[in-house]
Specification:
Elements: H1 6-16, H2 19-26, H3 33-44, E1 62-64, E2 67-69, E3 73-75, H4 88-98, E4 103-105, H5 113-117, E5 124-128, H6 134-147, E6 151-155, H7 165-170, H8 185-188, H9 200-208, H10 218-223, E7 229-234, H11 237-245, E8 250-253, H12 267-278, E9 284-287, H13 293-301, E10 306-309, H14 311-342
Parallel strand pairs: 3-10, 4-5, 5-6, 6-7, 7-8, 8-9, 9-10
Antiparallel strand pairs: 1-2
Length: 363
């Protein structure tokens, strides 16, 4: 599996994953314009390599929230890993630990926080949605801190679930044998209830997500946990500045993999204005459309401190378990190091906007 690229993993995974689960993983909202835009933005970028630079040693190491990582490539939060592998997030965490890479665990993980943390040598962050049941959020935050998680990641782009037409057409509901075990069963019942002409996940979100979330609410979460709070779903300079003003420890430029507002700006296109607005006050991460070391290099050159893989994580987990996840991270990191050398940038400190040719608005 070591020589397989993300697209190869995707082909293999599609052969193994049931059709409606595949649509749940791969699908976006609406016409999936933003899903396509995320990858197209990377494909359109062009690099300006420098020559006659000593690249005999290339360093991909990075520090995020005081944790030293061997790679700026991490794993984005994706739900229900047991839908594609029986060991679920435990295997994913083990794979990330082998490469000393960041793993952001989803609120709707199918293994307990404590089991996920057990094999992890690298840092774990826990992603949260803002629920009407605030006690449930507080309980998860306490458990995450006790289990050794290093940060909370609040998804701020989901006051309601995007209209994911594949799930609606499939009447998608989570297999009853796979559950979001870190939340009370009563909170998750609707996600397993198959309904005519509807997505069970959308019905669940309508019942449980709190659409009244505002910037003022962040103080409530910060008061209830010693962990730093990262905001995921930032796409504009205005929101980036507000995140810094309200004490965000980091921001993640994300459009939810094209699964929320269809037609939203591609994350790579949003990245420069977010980086400019943050102005070094906190780390900036990005997800959405990252498939290779070249993609990672482009995002890092535009100011990201790290990139996160979403769908490729599930492809790798489905086809190779924990070793598959480790192989994916290793391959993308090796690819990044290779391209850094060819670009004349031996360390991440040398990777900046001068590497990217100015992109016109023709795309």
């Amino acid at each position: 599996m070591t020589d397989l690229r993300a697209d190869d993993l995707r082909t293999l995974a599609r052969q193994q994953i049931p059709a409606e689960v595949w649509d749940f993983i791969e699908g976006g909202s609406g016409d999936e314009l933003t899903v396509a835009a995320n990858t197209a933005a990377f494909a359109a970028a062009r690099l300006r390599p420098r020559v006659m630079v000593d690249v005999s040693a290339v360093d991909t190491g990075v520090t995020l929230l005081d944790a030293r990582l061997d790679t700026p490539v991490g794993l984005a939060p994706t739900a229900y890993h047991q839908l594609v592998h029986p060991d679920g997030e435990v295997a994913t965490a083990a794979g990330a630990a082998k490469e000393n890479a960041l793993f952001v665990v989803a609120m709707f993980a199918s293994r307990t926080l404590e089991d996920i943390a057990a094999p992890a040598a690298g840092p774990l962050w826990l992603q949260l949605y803002w629920l009407r049941d605030r006690d449930a959020i507080a309980r998860l935050a306490r458990r995450a801190a006790a289990a050794g998680f290093a940060a909370l990641v609040l998804a701020v782009d989901a006051p309601r679930l995007g209209r994911r037409l594949r799930d609606i057409r499939n009447r998608f509901a989570v297999d009853g044998r796979v559950r979001a075990v870190n939340l009370d069963a009563s909170l998750m019942a609707a996600s397993h209830d198959r309904q005519a002409g509807a997505s069970a996940l959308a019905a669940h979100a309508a019942q449980t997500f709190d659409a009244s979330l505002t910037w003022a609410d962040l103080a409530w979460l910060r008061e209830r946990s010693p962990l730093p709070v990262v905001l995921k779903g930032i796409l504009t300079a205005e929101d980036a500045a507000a995140a810094v003003a309200h004490g965000a420890a980091a921001v993640i430029v994300s459009n939810h993999g094209g699964r929320q507002l269809d037609g939203a700006v591609a994350t790579l296109d949003a990245l420069p204005e977010v980086v400019e607005a943050v102005d070094g006050a906190c780390p900036v991460l990005v997800d959405g459309g990252v498939r290779s070391g070249r993609d990672a290099l482009i995002a890092l050159a535009l100011g990201a401190d790290a990139v996160l893989l979403g769908r490729p994580t599930l492809w790798a987990l489905a086809t190779g378990g924990s070793d598959g996840v480790a192989d994916l991270l290793r391959h993308v990191t090796d690819d990044l190091a290779h391209d850094m050398a060819l670009a004349g940038r031996p360390s991440l400190r040398d990777v900046d906007r001068r590497l990217i040719r100015a992109v016109t608005n023709a795309r």
